[in-house]
Amino acid sequence: MLKQKTLKDSFSLSGKGLHTGLDLTVTFNPAPDNHGYKIQRIDVEGQPTIDAVADNVTETTRGTVLSKNGVKVSTIEHGMAALYALGIDNCLIQVNGPEFPILDGSAQYYVQEIERVGTVEQNAVKDFYIIKSKIEFRDETTGSSIIVLPDENFSLNVLVSYDSTIIPNQFATLEDMHNFKDEVAASRTFVFVREIEPLLSAGLIKGGDLDNAIVIYERKMSQESFDKLADVMGVPHMDADQLGYINHKPLVWPNECARHKLLDVIGDLALIGKPIKGRIIATRPGHTINNKFARQMRKEIRLHEIQAPSYDCFDFYSLAGNSRFQFIHFSFDLVDTGTQTSNFIFKVLHFQRKFTSQCLDFINLRQHRLQLEQCLQFLFYRQLIRIFFCFSSHFTYKYFMGFVFILLNWSAKLGNKSRIME
Q1: Is 329 an annotated catalytic residue?
Q2: Which of 287, 304, 329, 394 does the annotation list as catalytic?
């Protein structure tokens, strides 16, 4: 089973804040098992700590803002995306101001520092939330939606669509978190020129410049207005007739904007509080719908706090730890002999009896014992059928009939035992 991870050592990054323009330093520290992500404002009296979870998000205008008891910290999504994508479960983050530094507008410096200091495996088991069925959140007003489907790993597909001739539609996908560094981390945040003046009027992007954002000029304005905006941004005057990207450096990828939206989705879903196994399909995502979806996922997790164990064809687990349940691991080398196949099936059935008995003793509610046994019986039967189909090429008809006979015989014994117990 995968174990939780934290950093081997601390690291710090410094730069100006995107919205405040302040010089800021953020430090990422190792944290103990089951600590999760927490952010500490070391510049505030008492150095308060905020749990980095979706329920504490209070603003999503142009970034994700956490707040607790009047203390805020914003622009956290790039750092959170790096932690989540690189498998860090526990981290204490300290910052000396109201937001994380924007750096170059991407997550690549966070990734570089995490790889530099390294990670360490901890004792606690990594607590995945496994998606069993489709979960969907839609915003009919904006046309945005996020869907999560069952999948063996965490993967994402993101589609962005704008009323723009420069980036009308873009698509990005990430099939494996191990590719985050090479395929997503360097993608930078972006803004349209038409958005800059309203954002400045709202007291935002005071630290924004061409070094930390992709600026997209896609709607022509007068040369005078364009020059005034260039003065506000502190950049040289440019030709107002020339539409396109306004950058000091070229795009990393043609679909860099879509990749950055994918990065933001990861950072915002890191606030679910548990790593998930499922495929995310996000259409026109933004921080607002990302947070609403993350909150919905947290509700789902609370409703299904204890999930049924997840098995594959080689591993069988019961609840582990200090409880009365025992951890049992079956591994076998598949050979085409009836004797070894039958022995394996008998071992599995013996394991089911033992597991069922321990469950019943643990719950100790007589009126629900028969229902629980039947439920567990169904779960194990389903897994055994999966085993058969996984290795169907190795089974002959004779062995399959023996397999069915064993199941029927054991089922009859279980039924008799249940009736006597009731």
Answers
A1: no
A2: 287
